[in-house]
Amino acid sequence: NESKQLQYQINRFGKGERLVVVRDVTRVHRLEQVRKDFVANVSHELRTPLTVLRGYIETLSMSPDLNPVMTRAFEQMQQQSDRMNLLINDLLMLSNLETDDNERNQQTVQLKPMLDMIAADAMALSDDRQHNLIVKCKSDIALIGSEKELHSAFSNLAFNAVKYSSPDSDIKLSISIDESALTFSVKDQGDGIDPIHIPRLTERFYRVDNGSRNSDAGGTGLGLAIVKHILLRHDAHLSIESKPGKGSTFSCIFPRDRYQILENQTVEAVD
Ligand code: ADP
């Protein structure tokens, strides 16, 4: 009684002949749904016990009677529970992106204030590493979509630029438009990425092993998978250009009907 999900493929030959291939993908879809539900439930269920553990770790680590071994152990526990927290949050975010309905994604999102805020946060993440964050965006440009999701995608890319580039280097966040597309790009002068890794970067948990920098950076390997999902929900796509040793440019390309030039805006000079 269950409705079937069928996939059709039409192959055309000469003289008007057609070969129609019909595939029953009901089982594949059902398994995919089971996977999504499982990840969503597990991440949700792990949240409460982790919050309790983090609370105890914090309280006990402030005890006055700790010897150096115990202090070191508490630091490790704190670091690992922070990492687990990041992982659970990223997994939950991915699950929500896969299951939430897309219809509510219709806000008019002004880009200049958002990019200024992301640049300030990236500076804070950069801390003593002193990256030079440059924002190039006119104040009258807006995207149509979810403010929260766009902010998350753009800040993931900006934070990666900080994580994977050297101190004192430039990081440029810029918006450019032409008649058919709007492009948001993040350009860094960092380590760059070997071309063999580029097609796999948006897979869940895929991380390039390039020595100490990656393990220091403390990511989850889910950031670019999140970016890809958010862009899909905005009819956009990610393009990655990189030269090992020279730097990378991550660009989000949105179609014409996803951006607007706002009227009645004081158009400031580009920074
Ligand atoms: P992570 O949490 O590890 O940063 P991401 O999905 O955001 O996960 O990125 C996947 C991998 O892509 C990273 O582990 C890193 O190796 C590589 N990467 C991402 N952004 C950059 C960048 N700007 N420069 C160099 N490598 C990068």
Automatic annotation (TrEMBL):
<keyword id="KW-0597">Phosphoprotein</keyword>
<keyword id="KW-0067">ATP-binding</keyword>
<dbReference type="GO" id="GO:0004721">
    <property type="term" value="F:phosphoprotein phosphatase activity"/>
</dbReference>
<protein>
    <recommendedName>
        <fullName>Phosphate regulon sensor protein PhoR</fullName>
        <ecNumber>2.7.13.3</ecNumber>
    </recommendedName>
</protein>
<keyword id="KW-0472">Membrane</keyword>
<keyword id="KW-0808">Transferase</keyword>
<dbReference type="GO" id="GO:0005886">
    <property type="term" value="C:plasma membrane"/>
</dbReference>
<keyword id="KW-0592">Phosphate transport</keyword>
<keyword id="KW-0418">Kinase</keyword>
<keyword id="KW-1003">Cell membrane</keyword>
<keyword id="KW-0813">Transport</keyword>
<dbReference type="GO" id="GO:0005524">
    <property type="term" value="F:ATP binding"/>
</dbReference>
<dbReference type="GO" id="GO:0016036">
    <property type="term" value="P:cellular response to phosphate starvation"/>
</dbReference>
<keyword id="KW-0812">Transmembrane</keyword>
<dbReference type="GO" id="GO:0006817">
    <property type="term" value="P:phosphate ion transport"/>
</dbReference>
<dbReference type="GO" id="GO:0000155">
    <property type="term" value="F:phosphorelay sensor kinase activity"/>
</dbReference>
<dbReference type="GO" id="GO:0006355">
    <property type="term" value="P:regulation of DNA-templated transcription"/>
</dbReference>
<feature type="domain" description="Histidine kinase">
    <location>
        <begin position="41"/>
        <end position="258"/>
    </location>
</feature>
<comment type="function">
    <text>Member of the two-component regulatory system PhoR/PhoB involved in the phosphate regulon genes expression. PhoR may function as a membrane-associated protein kinase that phosphorylates PhoB in response to environmental signals.</text>
</comment>
<keyword id="KW-0902">Two-component regulatory system</keyword>
<keyword id="KW-0547">Nucleotide-binding</keyword>
<keyword id="KW-1133">Transmembrane helix</keyword>
